[in-house]
Task: inverse folding
């Protein structure tokens, strides 16, 4: 009777009684991402990546630990595009759901709010879609990321542009006022200056701001390059605004969002020849030992599941699951994980160095990229023929960059 | 003055304009951009102001009507291949009918023995907003879209005496549309029997009823017009910017700012408030620090409301 009362109390409070946790035959995996709000697009792309990993790993019987397989069960928390909601979600996953580890949020801002909460409860988290260098400078012991930060990837496309003929001499760099976009703009600016491209204007603008007055002013300065750090909708709005004022720079450079299928769908021929930064495309030559043999195999599985091509964020999220899968096996820990086992999992993640369909996963254990994945090559992509293709570096390039951009009104 | 479609990418070399300092060169464009942004704001706020002025409903679902209208325009454009701007009457008709049907439900929530009808209306439409937004995310998905219009690809280049402006055709359309809708609404309210009934209802609901005005039917029409105009605005916005199931929230807040600045329920103040907000943003983006644009907008809003709590013309509620 006493146990029944305790169970009822636990059910009302939404927590699991201790005896229900003992000898659990599956891993409880928390997923914190933005399923609604302004960042819903990226958040749902993130979710697709995590879901696809969970589906694939469960179809294989689960995560193999010492010869026995343990399925995974995902527990979601909607961050609603708000850092505070993300932190509340993390608190709930840690205290009520008692998850073993967490697949992290979309957007750097939410990640920065979630990481301290999980640090408090000593729960390892891998984020598959946060790229601000601020996260790694905080040196969170339990937070890892599969996508390298923008100051690691952002300089590649600027360097690639600087090597084109005629070399761009001037640039205008804009960024939206959030952690990722601001860091992207700063990375573009630093790289432009390092490559001898004069930055005529550098502005951080409020998120969602109508940019037409700023772009009209920029047009007077006739920059060769316009580089912009922002999220999906903002990128589409920027291209539309440039189209409306009929200004075609020699090169238009963005970061995340260009590789999203929505970018090409929304802009059609105006999306052509826009440059972006990435670390993965479906055609990247990779070799995976877990779940998917290479990038192409993953892309086919994603296309079959969701009907649209996968981008590097979705792939990075599936790779985050694989990293946990490999680290759990190496640490030899079984569910439910206690604090000591979670620490062992954290240590295994830090020591991890594996090849996946996504490329190499090797989390830095020191320096400014602490716990970010530094095993990947930064790529310059350009939209050509309605899809992102690798334009640089030379060893991965699938095509020559199209430069200067074809003027908007001469496109067919 | 040179006038015509711009055919070259960007301007002619800057040396041609050296007789005018760069900061002055930017001024006409900044003012024009501010007015064009203001044009978009007018259409966002007009229906909202009308609904409050007549029915005393703070419609927090206004952004969602804009979103739904944008998606109807998006799908109609894909199915018919017609320019979305040619589809505006269809979108207006569909959503006027939707608003007409929904209004009695709102009326029920704000009338009867319930206390504080304004608060009840606000809470009801807030719930409506959440329901529509959630349904939108489920039905339309989470990716952004765009409504392509032939006008999106055209611009006009005007030049005189070393000064010049580029006029994006689609934004010019948005401006003309805003002025047109304002003028039509003004005419309907001032010159027709229906408008007389609406004004009577806004002034004194009980007295209007005693004069034989059917408050429920007029209320349904007013809310229907508000929803129809907002939905049409969604199509225009989708031709200028991108659209997504989550877009509504930003426009609801925007409508609220414009209407508060204009004076709650004072329809004639909406265009001036919208232009003011558009100009402040544009000028601050060009001449100030763009990072603080919203701060500048809020500071001006605060100062105006401090001096005149009933809006720019002190004629709000």
Result:
């Amino acid at each position: 009777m006493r146990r029944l009362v305790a169970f009822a109390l636990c059910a009302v409070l939404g927590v699991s009684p201790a005896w229900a946790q003992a000898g659990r035959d599956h891993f409880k995996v928390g997923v914190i991402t933005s399923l609604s709000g302004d960042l819903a697009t990226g958040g749902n792309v993130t979710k697709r990546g995590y879901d696809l990993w969970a589906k694939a790993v469960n179809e294989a019987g689960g995560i193999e630990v010492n010869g026995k397989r343990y399925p995974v069960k995902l527990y979601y928390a909607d961050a609603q595009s708000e850092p505070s909601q993300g932190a509340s979600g993390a608190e709930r996953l840690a205290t009520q759901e008692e998850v073993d580890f967490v697949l992290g949020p979309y957007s750097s801002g939410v990640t920065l709010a979630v990481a301290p909460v999980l640090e408090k409860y000593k729960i390892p988290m891998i984020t598959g879609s946060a790229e601000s260098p601020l996260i790694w400078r905080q040196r969170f012991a339990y937070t890892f990321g599969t996508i390298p930060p923008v100051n690691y990837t952002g300089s590649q496309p600027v360097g690639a542009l600087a090597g084109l003929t005629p070399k761009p001499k001037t640039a205008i760099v804009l960024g939206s006022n959030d952690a990722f976009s601001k860091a992207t703009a700063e990375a573009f600016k630093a790289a432009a200056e390092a490559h001898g491209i004069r930055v005529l204007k550098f502005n951080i603008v409020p998120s969602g701001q109508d940019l037409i007055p700023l772009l009209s002013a920029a047009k007077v300065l006739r920059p060769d390059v316009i580089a912009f750090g922002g999220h999906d909708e903002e990128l589409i709005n920027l291209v539309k605004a440039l189209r409306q004022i009929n200004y075609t720079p020699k090169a238009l450079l963005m970061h995340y969002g260009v590789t999203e299928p929505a970018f090409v769908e929304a802009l059609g021929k105006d999306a052509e020849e826009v440059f972006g930064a990435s670390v993965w495309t479906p055609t990247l030559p990779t070799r995976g030992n877990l779940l998917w043999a290479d990038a192409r195999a993953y892309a086919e599985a994603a296309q079959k599941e969701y009907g649209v091509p996968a981008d590097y964020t979705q792939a990075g999220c599936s790779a985050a699951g694989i990293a946990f899968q490999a680290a759990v096996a190496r640490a030899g820990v079984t569910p439910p994980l206690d604090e000591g086992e979670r620490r062992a999992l954290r240590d295994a993640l830090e020591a991890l160095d594996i090849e996946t369909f996504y490329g190499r996963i090797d989390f830095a254990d020191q320096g400014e990229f602490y716990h970010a994945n530094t095993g990947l090559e930064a790529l310059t992509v350009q939209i050509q023929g309605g899809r992102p293709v690798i334009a640089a570096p030379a060893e991965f390039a699938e095509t020559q960059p199209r430069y200067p951009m074809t003027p908007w009104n001469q496109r067919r | 003055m040179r006038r015509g479609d711009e055919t070259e990418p960007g301007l002619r070399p800057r040396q041609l304009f050296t007789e005018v300092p760069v900061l002055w060169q930017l001024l006409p464009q900044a003012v024009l951009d501010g007015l064009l942004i203001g044009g978009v704001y007018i259409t966002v706020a007009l229906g909202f102001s009308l609904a409050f002025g007549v029915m005393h409903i703070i419609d927090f679902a206004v952004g969602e009507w804009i979103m739904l209208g944008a998606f109807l325009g998006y799908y109609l454009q894909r199915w018919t291949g017609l320019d979305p701007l040619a589809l505006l009457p269809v979108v207006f008709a569909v959503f006027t009918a939707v608003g007409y049907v929904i209004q009695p439900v709102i009326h029920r929530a704000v009338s009867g023995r319930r206390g504080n009808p304004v608060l009840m209306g606000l809470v009801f439409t807030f719930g409506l907003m959440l329901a529509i937004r959630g349904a939108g995310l489920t039905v339309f998905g989470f990716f952004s879209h765009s409504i392509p219009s032939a006008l999106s690809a055209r611009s006009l280049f005007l030049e005189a005496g070393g000064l010049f402006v580029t006029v994006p055709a689609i934004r010019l359309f948005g401006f003309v549309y805003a002025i047109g809708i304002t003028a039509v609404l003004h005419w309907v309210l001032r010159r027709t029997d229906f408008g007389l009934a609406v004004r009577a209802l806004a002034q004194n609901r009980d007295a209007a009823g005693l004069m034989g005005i059917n408050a429920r039917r007029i209320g349904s029409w007013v809310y229907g017009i508000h929803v129809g105009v907002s939905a049409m605005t969604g199509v225009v916005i989708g031709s200028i910017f991108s659209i997504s199931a989550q877009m509504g929230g930003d426009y609801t807040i925007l409508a609220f700012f414009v209407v508060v600045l204009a004076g709650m329920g004072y329809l004639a103040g909406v265009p001036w408030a919208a232009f003011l907000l558009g100009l402040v943003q544009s000028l601050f983006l060009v001449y100030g620090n763009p990072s603080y644009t919203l701060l500048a907008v809020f500071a001006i809003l605060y100062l105006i409301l401090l001096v005149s709590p009933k809006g720019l013309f002190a004629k709000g509620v």
